[in-house]
Amino acid sequence: MSNTTLGKPHRSDPADVSSSIYDVVIVGAGVSGAIIANELSQTGFRVLILEAGPGHDLTIPGYEQYLSRFYASASKDNNAPYPRNRNAPMPRSTDVRRLQPGEPDASGYIVQNGPLALDSTYTRVVGGTTMHWEGKALRMLPEDFEMRTRFGRGLDWPISYEQLAPYYRKAEFELGVSADVEDQAYHGIRFDPGYVYPMRGIPASYLDKTVARGLNGAEVTLRGEKFALTVRGTPQARNGVPNPRYDGGKGYVPVGAVSVEQVEQGERCQGNNNCVPICPVQAKYHAGKTLVKALATGRVKLLPQAVASKVVIDPGNGRVRHIEFKAYSDPGSTEHATGIARGRVFVLAANAVENARLMLASDLPGTSNLVGRNLMDHPFLLTWGLMPEITGTLRGTQSTSGIQDLRGGAFRRHQAAFAVSIHNDGWSWATGSPYSVLADIVDRQNQFGAALRRRLVDQVSRQLQLAFMVELLPDQNNRVTVDARYTDPLGNLRPVISYGLSDYTLDGIAYSRRLSRLIFQRLGVEDHTTYDPLDYAYVSYKGEGYTVRGGNHWAGTHIMGTSAKDSVVDGAQRSWDHENLYLVGAGSMPTTGTSNTTLTLSALSFLTAERIRGELDQDRSPATIAAA
Amino acid sequence: MSLKRITTLDELHNYLHAAMQLEHATIPPYLTALYSIQPGTNSAAFHVLRVVVVEEMLHLTLAANILNAVGGAPDLAREGFVPLYPAYLPDGETDFEVGLQRFSREAVETFLRIERPARSSEESQRLVRRQRVDRGLLPTFRAEDDSDLHFYSIGEFYQEIGRGLAYLQEEKAKSGETLFSGDPARQITPDYYYSGGGEIIPVSNLETAQEAIRLISEQGEGFGKRIYDYEGELSHYYRFQQLVLGRYYRKGDAPDHPSGGPVDVDWDAVYPVKTNACLADYPQPSELHAAAVEFNARYKDFLGRLTQAFSGRPELLLDAVGDMFRIRETASQLMRNPIPGTSGLNAAPTFEMPLPTET
Amino acid sequence: MHADQAEFQDFLSLSSVVTGFTAFQLQGTGQAESYFSTLIDILGEATVAALLQVFRRVQRETGEDAAALDRLLRAAIFSDEKLGPIARNLIKLWYVGTWYPLPAAWREAFGELEKDTTFVVSPAAYTEGLLWPAIGANPAGAKGPGYGTWSAPPRIPEV
To answer: What CATH number is given to the structural domain containing B217?
Structure first.
């Protein structure tokens, strides 16, 4: 692994690419694309990956440039480590501002149509958004796949938890998940007998343990149903202590930093407290780890700085003929060459927003007209306060434990479920602490010297922040569209999003706030939660106001279903309309429950790779495709 | 102390104590070079040094596992465990100096010699009769005629441990006993110890003991004449050599001919720390002096915690890792502070312990 | 070095008093000279010299009396319309390696300065910030304290 050559020799020039026919053409070098490329190249197929962003990143010096940019950035937002790139722009939370009704805000890359401004982001570099993801790897609940049937809400998936379970196992291996299986069987989550995660659970933080001491066993009643609260370790895709019982006693070898040269780093989490936006030692999984394995087969071409611009369909049979792309050599200049990528199978793995954007820019809204619709994310409600004692802030991974007891239940007929994370990084997300606290003590509390230091400890090291990740159901009015008025410097249409919250979700948010008050009362936490009515993400509901943050869990823009009328793709993520086209990623998910989407979309990628392999196996002759 | 041919358990314990001391003795020189690198510079050198330090810790832990397995009691806190620098290692007919110095070409030359000392070509050369330096890191060898001999190099020292283990186990077996009667609860297992390359081996019998010896003695210089060791990992010697040759090794390369990407070394992006600094170099009283004393105290605590961890409390290794973090912070602070009265020399940790009484 | 050694020593002394860290600890960040030149670069030598001159006077007048030092610093520097915002910015510079723009009122009264914008002095200025050791933590993204250390109670230095 560590000696995989990943430098320039693997880059192809656009002309070279255009003259070849690949078995599979993948758009996007993120986690979905990497898994599919690896699975198919390992069994002998030739794969081309088009990546919009730069690709010099799979070396230690390349990675350390990200780190250095992060250190030197005054704003430490999700995309701070990744260079601004005019040709493949990225949404940044720092670009988001309050919307005026009826006035789209086009100042950032994503055009915001409202009603609610959404500060979610994604990252357009090799490795995709797994470069900055936090690494929470919770499976969805069995009931999440059957929302319509069980609760009369949202949509059912065309596949069940049981059908996805074998692929969850593959994903947990690929992503390198650390968790103790005995903590994770709740709300109907089932594991095969004898199954263990690749690595043991990441140790709970001192803060987690303090909260657990005060909270475990507390009972709450929601719509007549009783729930006992438990602080539970969160499965995380970062390296911990390998479990010798994994894979029937074969054990597991953690995958550390990706590098051309042999460098031992990142085989175990060091507690850098920076999973988002970049793990400095690569102890957290990112898609580059899978990509190097794919590239090592010698059958995968990665073409970075190539922005897919159009999916071209054969009008006769509806099949994809090729994908047009714009290749640029300098991120600072819009000078580019247009190329075409030809293959037997095409996979759009660009993420829910970019997949939909590309389809719509290619004038392919689908028979169902659902491309771009049902846009989802996980709205987050943050609540924060000061613990009665010093528990230490900004230590460990950003979150090690949470409360999962209200992820499921009969109440989902009426209101959204939610998962709760306990944050080891204090109020960072909510208030910009510790910077904001420092500024306040110096500028407003007028302290300096030893007194300043003592107040910092008192006001930072007791911080508790709870993040309530609330379910959002599919809604056709929440959507990605394109508009000829909004283009990027390469001339590609930019995504325009419309986004709002239903009462179902707002009831979940309101209850989250109530529950956090109960938790704080029980723990003796001094509640400091305030929501600023001037905040771009402020919403009023039933007499109370909340600030709702985005979760970067873009989903639902090409949902899977049972027919071309009710969905964009089938249960294996194949397009109903174009039989050699797959749209993969969280965009295919009809509901997302209360799980961070990466583990589930990774599982889906394994399922899809298996399906594509089956199809390619049926016809191994590329010539017939070229003629098609 | 001098060692004799291993014929008794006591003598084996002496050797294993000496092995732990030896494995530890290279850590302060490596740490000094590592911490002297200015942040954000010399990434290649930083990574090489970091891995080597981590693996020297692994060797130390392996030696402790062997000692525990044969009923010994590791003690890193005892007087004299940490040598005074500069110390000396044998390199065939001569000894070479191992000191505390900043990252530099000279330092890397020393590291190369540490990791691949000369090997005797003949069996009769494994022990040599020659002038002994003070502060030698390896004990002398007391021959049967009571004269002092010297191990040709570290390799010969470990060879004797390997031989002694096999011999004593054979002796024990004759009476139906085992040499490996130590409490298994004192073994450090992968659950508690983690290293980038090479896994910790719990020692419970002759095979695992020999495996541990092999890992200790081969990780430095490679396996046979190849650049990668038994685990497929680039050996320390060739890792360091990359810094001198300015190029990375790739799988399949011949020794001395790396074919990978360029290695950039900025020999100037290093704090100008005084070589083999000692407490007496720092004015008294001063914050600088106090910090250097504090560093040594913390380092001593760290060794004490390791001793506890190697004495049946392996979970303390996690705390020891935390100790290392704080030790590094103090070391960095020292290295950025000028020594008053010198022209441009900075301080450094002195690793003097116990603290010399005259201060 | 932009100014002579004596000025630099005064800069260190002032920095030590306002940050609550010793001169040894400040030098130990490796950032002292860089911050001193940053200050001069933004404010100009005259303003920095004026700040240090006031500080020297305060020091002379208070000697070893900590309470008096505190009182006089507030009187002569922290409540001074020109020097107060600079001193507060100096604290933040040491704590997080970042220069924040001076308040609008300051710029109105004393003029706009070309380099008075938000910036991180260098990547190392971030990782060597005093905020992190003050709260017993590592700067997010650097100096990871090691697997599992977060399970133990925090160790926060006494002041």
So the answer is: 1.20.1260.10
